[in-house]
Amino acid sequence: MTDRSSGSSLVVVAGKLAAWAGFGRAVAAGSVAPFASFAMALLAWTLVAGSGAFPETIFPDPVTVYQAALEMTESGVLWSDIGVSMSRAAIGFLIGASLGVAVGLLTGRVRIVRMLLNPFMTLLRPIPAIALVPVAIVWFGIGEGSKYFVISYTVFLAVWFNTHHGMEYIPEVYVRASRSLGASRVREFFLVIIPAAAPHILAGIRLGVALAFLSLVAAELSGASSGLGYRLQEARQYIRTDRMFALLIILGAIGALIDSVAHWIGRRLVHWEQS
What we know:
The protein has helices spanning 2-50, 62-75, 77-109, 111-124, 133-140, 144-168, 172-180, 185-220, 228-237, 241-269. It is an all-alpha fold. It folds into 2 domains: 1-53; 62-273, MetI-like (MetI-like fold, Orthogonal Bundle), CATH 1.10.3720. The chain is elongated and about 70 Å long. The two termini are 41 Å apart. 29% of the residues are buried. Mean pLDDT is 82; it is low at 10-14 and 16-21.
């Protein structure tokens, strides 16, 4: 009996050690993989820039780009531009996302609203944000209103489409089950329909975050005197590709960080959809 007990204990301990080892390898892989990817990209960038295949004024090396970013940081210009751009993106996103969710809820569940609005929305979707910049300037001037309009327009369409899709294609069995249990239409809407469509809504909001940054640059390329998009345009005029590379990397890093935060929040809000 003692030998069997000892053997069972050893098996349990070995199983736990194997589980912890697997967990450690997964964590290590998840932590190392991004750094390895960035290291490979940085190495390739350095080799191409150092090969002399392109002039330094066109394709600067990483050290030159870092020095340009440091120069903008020390002058205070970079932090000011980041603050202005983040404020524009946040306000435009909130306007567009709020309207997108509200209209998507209606077009997804109310037949008459869907029949009236869907053809118009289908017409608007292919129009890129940058094509609206001249119209926005004519309507709202070169102030902040034109930037908010372009950003909120882009975000609105993405959030509306995902919300509409999620609301329209809710499995009918959910609705039948709630009605068979005697749920009122209000309880059915908030406790069945909204949770079922929530993954699509949050996916649209996450996409809207990314599109807010895309349309932000388009909005700031014309009629702006501050912001990351304006600074990109200024760097182009003076052929400062080192600053252009630095600003593009900063835009990508900020967008990736905010996207990660949105993804983290979404996973916790819609925990019932996680496998």
